[in-house]
């Protein structure tokens, strides 16, 4: 029910699922070695995991207080940073593997 809840209420998670489904075949269609494929899968799925963690943080903070509070803002900002870092790692890993393969 957790995946269903996040998918139904988080637009960014839906976008990341679409990206996941579009990019997943490239892991198997292009001649990467097994370690590269595992790293590519881990970083691609890591974006989804980060978004789920961020959603959990946001819901927990909203459950505690809907008022503006500096600590609540910092917790939500940290959750957003998790997503940003996961996307950054994904871009570095995939970019380096594709660069090595095609340039």
Query: Largest sheet, described in full?
Result: none
Q: Whole-number radius of gyration?
A: 16 Å
Order of helix and strand elements from N to C terminus: HHHH
For this entry, what is the oligomeric state of its chains? single chain
Topology at a glance:
Elements: H1 2-9, H2 11-29, H3 34-64, H4 70-102
Helix pairs in contact: 2-3, 3-4
Describe the structure in your own words.
With 103 residues, the chain is mostly helical. The protein is built from 4 helices and no strands. The longest helix is centred in the C-terminal third of the chain and has 33 residues, at 70-102. The radius of gyration is 16 Å and the shape is elongated. It starts with a helix and ends with a helix.
Brief characterization of the structure:
With 103 residues, the chain is mainly alpha-helical. Helix content is 88%, strand content 0%. It has helices spanning 2-9, 11-29, 34-64, 70-102.
